[in-house]
Specification:
- It is a single chain.
- The protein has 17 helices and 20 strands.
- By secondary structure, the chain is an alpha/beta fold.
- It is elongated, with a radius of gyration of 31 Å.
């Protein structure tokens, strides 16, 4: 310690006299600590103890934030955070009741951490555990039905005022997936680097590093990653069974009920609340949003702070799969066109000097203004040509039948004869129609980078013809290609194991089946091997969508909603969502942000900061609104 003091004194001697702070061993000391260091170790110790004593007195008076500020003035940031955060707690599942019983423990594991956010060391608390999702209050008895024990993993900054601190609830899709993608690759404080679409074509050649997540949303909001019933460690509570929650309505009700339970349990009633759903999860949170708004404050306990309850502040639709009308067109064509350009050589690319967004706008205009109208004309002409040919064939049959009644090989019915004889390949659209549409076909070929495409390719939208040969080609990202793994499914294992390893190591949660295993890099790790990455399927009957978003906005017109998409996602396409919102009259109300990426836009390193920037603005512009019902 004496050596450290002399070392600090030497550094301070080199500092300019008018400096307000000095960097020492990667830590910034405030002026008060610098002055104490100059006075020597005893003076420093006295200063720290004095601050601690004052903090204890302030805390006893209920002035927690003043106590924390006093500790921070002398550099005791960790002790300042401990005023608000619970102590670390190791949860051993074997010591607690089965979560499928009403006696399920709602005590979570706890582990405190720090990381650098926006250039500043920030403390936060990681928790994992179950909460009971209670049904709506019985109007006669006031009792609530314990329906399911929902497993969650959360990251909270406990030293910030709760009435101003947002909390975001994350749900993946499938349906049937735990929240591994949004947690381990997108928005949690730790992430596994995927780096699509630039992954090595052999799986073993990919490093899949676990790193601190610079683009975590923890600077904007507390984060709660939720596993629906049958996924993760979530389960129905007897006498309920998991299959009772296997339809869209009961699934969304659990979301509503969990958000309410979490808020009541953690005194977050007055916090701004956000729902984020990915893929099918977007339908889940759309329906749940309307349910939350309809229920209003009826199932919330009063906030101990006396602040009014905030029911819901915003909804984020990540690569959404929603119910709702779109357009009578091939909404996947723009995505395929964007992918076709990706595989073209720069010197022959039809995109030229246009940015990605500019080229996407051009593709939208081509699709709506030229391709779809031309396709309608072509299909009408083809239908007419087919009908004309069938009429000729029927007439020929009748002539033959008149001459050879009952002859072998001749159908008795004209319709049967035409069905057996007509071949689409033989149908010829009028040359005049083809000549009129020829410029559109040529533009179609230019976009595809393939000048041999036929009218059949044009009619079927076969515009992506230049992908490389590979064992597996991507649907979730049309640019992906692999030689020894499935491009659309490899991440189940990588991210699933990531969560299983993070639970004991980072969240202090030990399930009943903890094993020592080798991780991706060959290191020994503890793994909660019984964590269910996938669970039961959920029926799409009553699937949430634009109608539910419309209803939620009717309850609260101030509700903020946005959608995020990747240009290269062929599973849930950006154009489909744009057209759905347009058909519902929501396109001016709900912005759609599209990025360089596939279904999981966050896999693309170059898109992570642009996505984060959109979230920063989203949270900043939506402080949350008190409920009036």
């Amino acid at each position: 310690m004496i050596f450290r003091v002399f070392f600090l004194l030497a550094l301070l001697g080199l500092a300019a006299c008018n400096d307000s702070k000095v960097e020492v061993a990667d830590r910034t000391f405030p002026e008060s600590v610098q002055e104490s260091v100059k006075l020597g170790e005893p003076a420093l110790t006295d200063k720290l103890e004095s601050a601690r004593k004052e903090a204890v007195e302030l805390k006893a008076k209920g002035k927690l934030f003043d106590a924390a500020d006093r500790l921070r003035t002398v550099g005791l940031d960790e002790e300042a955070y401990a005023i608000f955060a619970p102590a670390d707690y190791k949860f051993l599942a074997k010591d607690h009741p089965d979560p499928s019983t009403p006696q399920v423990s709602e005590t979570p594991s706890v582990m405190r951490h720090s990381m650098v956010l926006n250039g500043k060391k920030t403390w936060f608390t990681a928790k994992a555990g179950h909460l009971i999702a209670y049904g709506q209050k019985d109007q006669l008895t006031g009792k609530k039905d314990a329906k399911a024990a929902i497993f969650y993993m959360s990251y909270t900054r406990d030293d910030l005022p709760r009435e101003n601190r947002p909390v975001t609830f994350f749900f993946n899709g499938g349906p049937g997936y735990a929240s591994i993608f949004l947690h381990m690759a997108a928005y949690g404080p730790k992430r596994i680097v995927i780096n699509a679409p630039y992954m090595a074509r052999k799986l073993a050649d990919n490093p899949f590093k676990l790193i601190d997540n610079e683009e975590t949303l923890l600077d904007n909001s507390d984060l709660v990653f939720v596993d629906p019933v049958s996924e993760g460690f979530s389960t129905a509570i007897a006498p309920h069974r998991n299959h009772h929650f296997s339809n869209a309505t009961t699934d969304a009700e659990i979301v509503r009920d969990f958000v309410t339970s979490y808020s009541n349990k953690n005194n977050r009633q007055s916090s701004p609340k956000y729902l984020l759903g990915e893929s099918w999860g977007s339908a889940r949170v759309s329906l749940a949003a309307s349910m939350l708004e309809e229920a209003g404050t009826s199932n919330y306990d009063p906030d101990p702070s006396g602040q009014p309850v905030k029911v819901l502040s915003g909804v984020v639709l990540q690569s959404p799969y929603l119910s709702g009308d779109s357009c009578a067109c091939n909404t996947g064509l723009p995505t395929l066109a964007m992918a076709a350009e990706y595989f073209q050589k720069p010197e022959t690319s039809w995109r030229g000097a246009r940015t990605l967004d500019q080229y996407a706008d051009y593709i939208r205009q081509f699709a709506m203004q030229r391709y779809f109208p031309a396709l309608e004309t072509y299909n009408a002409a083809f239908t007419a040509a087919t009908a004309a040919k069938e009429a000729i064939l029927v007439e020929a049959k009748n002539e033959i039948s008149a001459k050879f009644k009952g002859g072998m090989g001749v159908s008795v019915e004209g319709e049967a004869f035409s069905a057996e004889t007509t071949d689409d390949d033989d149908v010829q659209v009028e040359p005049a129609t083809l000549a009129k549409l020829e410029p559109i076909l040529q533009e179609f070929r230019n976009i595809a980078g393939n000048h041999s495409l036929s009218w059949d390719d044009f009619a079927s939208g076969n515009i992506l013809t230049n992908r490389p040969a590979a064992k597996s080609l991507g649907d979730y990202d049309a640019r992906m290609a692999a030689d020894d793994y499935q491009t659309d499914w490899f991440d189940d294992t990588i991210l699933g194991n990531g969560v299983k390893d993070l639970l004991p190591a980072f969240l202090n949660y030990y399930s009943s089946d903890v094993k020592t295993v080798k991780d991706w890099h060959g290191n020994d790790v503890l793994r909660n091997d019984d964590y269910a990455v996938t669970g039961q399927d959920v029926s799409a009957d009553g699937l949430g969508g634009v109608a539910d978003l419309t209803l939620a906005l009717a309850f609260d017109p101030r509700l903020k909603i946005m959608a995020l998409h990747g240009y290269y996602d062929t599973v849930t396409t950006f154009f489909e969502t744009e057209k759905q919102l347009q058909q519902a009259g929501l396109d001016k109300r709900i912005p759609v942000h599209v990025f360089d990426g596939g279904h999981m836009t966050y896999y693309v390193e170059a898109s992570r900061k642009p996505v984060k920037k959109v979230f920063d603005e989203f949270y900043r512009n939506t402080p949350g609104t008190p409920a009036t019902n």
